[in-house]
Amino acid sequence: MRQLAGRISEDFINEVRGSVNIVDVISQYVSLEKRGKDYVGLCPFHQEKTPSFSVNPDKQFFYCFGCHKGGNVYKFIMEKEEVTFPESVERVAEFANIPMPQEYQEQPVKLNPLMQMHKEAADFYQQVLMTTKIGERGLEYARKRGLDDDLLKHFKIGYAPGKSDLLLTYLRGEGYTEDQLAESGLFVKSQDGRLFDRFRDRLMFPMSDESGHPVAFSGRRISDDPEEPKYLNSPETSIFNKSDLLFHFSEAKKHVRKEGHLVLFEGHMDVISAYKAGVKTGIASMGTSLTQQQVYMIRRITKQVVINYDGDDPGQHATERAVGLFKQAGNFDLGIVILPDKLDPDEYVKQYGPDSYQAAIRGAISTTDFFLQRLKKKYNLNNEREQVAYLSEAVAEIAALPNPVEQDLYVGRLAKETGVSLDALKVNLSRARRKQRRVDQHTSSEVLPEPAPLAPAADPQPVTRALKAQQRLLYAYIYSDEARDYLIVNGFVFPNPEYERLAKLWLNYIETHENVSLSGFLDFIPEELQSIIVSTDMTGLPGEITLEELEAQVRVLNLCKIDDEIDRHMQAIADARRRNDQTAILLETQAILQLRQLKLQEEEAVSDRRKANQGQ
Asked: Does the predicted TM-score (pTM) go above 0.90?
């Protein structure tokens, strides 16, 4: 058992694991769909287009057939949140609303120094805002923007006073080195090499990674000084890349199952206003256009996305671009919210109230409706030549829809709106479909640019006959007392050292535990062995195993061992020929002949057993 696990009782570990459904926990990170008895989704540990990540609710396991990560609910949290085993127990206990034991002394999470520095900076800025005299200026501004204490705490908003070295002095006092301070992005360096606070007299919005750790800041100018930028963002650092960060993402994904979608905004004030209005799933890119990596992050959580960018022309152009990125990634169900009077979400909530805004989100239109509305504004429909151009472009957009019912619906609507006959539009639609098919055939062979991978998928271990046989025998060793006794009595040893180690660990586990489960066993063994257990268990092997099959699998391993020996002697003959050592060649050849005779006997025994089984 892990050394750290001893700090929490095994009974508590089992209680917490047994009180949650792994599907519910993983659904906070991955959009899962039921497929047979399992749930599948895009792997959160490596980049992929086709889902290979599987969750089995019966066995309470997850496993990725692409990168081969697997384990129970604790292992998932450890991998995804990059925490220790005790910390993963604590996270799952929190999810299950089970308090940690009183005797468990919570240890602070050891973060990367820059991440720890950002956490302390966020705490510092909020402390200044909420509790100090110097922070009253920031608090007054926050109140004017409608930010109450609950919002300030939820979004961890703070205030950076106008002084040039306040944060610097504080963090130096916390023991950070000058190199760490300079690398953090929280400070600027003068020509003479001195450091100064980057953010001054600004309301501070922490930007957190997918696990909720602050890694950057966006500072809103409080003064009316036009020389100062309205928003000032952290530069990119070793822990912050603006292309793969979404504001409020770590919190929003917790509410996706309840609200059914994520809502994409342009800025973080829109997210905050929407949250105040009851929309908990708001996210935003950090002052930049949406990126492919951000689209992939969203896709892992949900396919249902509502885009609510600003109502002005730049906001609508940004919506068009975002729709293009989502369509390029494929398999999204998109809705578009267009607010009246070119308002942004923050302005709309203040003017019309939370209920009206929630109704606007529920009434999101399709991307085709959005495109057609934009198209109408592009043309003068009182001019016949421009009306023809409008219809041509509109029909081309409709032809790209995959659903014929949708195509029929929109073409019928076009006919009513323009007075053009439905038959004429359907002729144009048929032509546009043929053209679209040619485009699809051409583009399907092209490889679209991929976002940077989260992590390279591990090279799979070749599934040899020997490996398959060992998987079957390990499965039998775990699930069948009779099979295990047979293998032990006959002195069987797994050729693969990791499999043999697992067999011994399983024997120790069942001898020392009253309540035995495979999910519990995973907490008992080293991490490097867990994926072997999970992959073996999720290969769909039959539950029962006969003595005849046991013997057959052992013989398969014997045959594989003989083949390995023959290969070794063949290599020795090649070496002997290079040395012109005739005696060695003769001895190695004799050894090969003996091994081939032994192999023939083994194969005949397997054949005789198969015939005997067929005759029964």
From this structure: no
